[in-house]
Specification:
Number of domains: 2
CATH class of the largest domain: Mainly Beta
Strand content: 25-35%
Number of strands: 9
Structural class: alpha+beta
CATH topology of the largest domain: Jelly Rolls
CATH architecture of the largest domain: Sandwich
Length: about 230
């Protein structure tokens, strides 16, 4: 997670302002066009970033233990552009935006560290948007499962067919058929409300190129990684 990567001096600057919070399933952390009051540093659980428009919803990123929800204020915005909703319950530390700004003014290294993360998150959002129009159902679904697994550092995902079809904008029947094929090949196991990844390596091979681009962006946030989605 981000707080674990910063220096002890930087952590001391933000520590007094951090407040532990429980992330309950379906808890809304931010609403679009509403002022950003807190930044949430995720320790466990999973948060879905979504674009909401005219009654429709599309997920643009997943944020897990290595990330921060609301850090986009570094780009200059005072309001959230996304809805942020807890998908899998967990724990976070939150800090008021004004307090984080104060800490960054005193410790510029904190802003530099967060800026690198926001750059990776921005690539994540852009790449997922491009993925939605360039790649087929199987590749997109495999990518989502891999990204979610990475974000929570677990092969057990408490999610449903209905959820996957809604956030990916896919037909439920198509999602079910694809998951059945994954299960027949020994890649996953399905049970009520839970998907378990049994063959992570081969599931990753079925994912589109977007998965590697996004994963590499978080692993090496200093690197310049182009947004791309070649036909594959």
């Amino acid at each position: 997670m981000i707080l674990a990567r910063i220096s002890l001096q930087d952590l001391a600057a933000v520590g007094p302002f951090l407040e532990p919070v429980m992330l309950r399933e379906r808890l809304v952390l931010h609403e679009p066009k509403k002022p950003l009051e807190y930044v949430y540093f995720i320790e466990s659980g999973l948060v879905s970033l979504r674009i909401i428009a005219e009654g429709s919803m599309l997920e643009t990123a997943l944020i897990g233990y290595r990330g921060a929800v609301g850090a986009s204020f570094l780009l200059g915005g005072h309001c959230s552009t996304h809805q942020s909703v807890v998908l899998f319950p967990g724990i976070a530390h939150r800090i008021r935006v004004d307090d984080l700004r104060k800490a960054m003014n005193e410790r510029p290294e904190i802003q530099e560290h967060l800026s690198r993360y926001v750059q990776a998150l921005s690539l994540h959002c852009a790449q997922m948007a491009l993925c939605g129009v360039r790649h087929n159902l199987e590749k997109r679904l495999a990518s989502w499962l891999c990204l979610a697994s990475d974000a929570i550092d677990s092969h057990v995902l408490p999610t449903t067919h209905d959820y996957l079809s809604s956030v990916l904008g896919l037909r439920r029947a198509g999602v079910t058929e694809t998951l059945n094929r994954f299960e027949d090949k020994g890649l996953i196991r399905k049970s009520r409300g839970v998907l378990q990844i049994d063959d992570r390596k081969h599931l990753g091979q079925r994912a589109c190129c977007c998965y590697k681009l996004i994963s590499n962006a978080y692993a090496s946030p200093d690197a310049s990684i182009p947004i791309a989605a070649p036909a594959d």
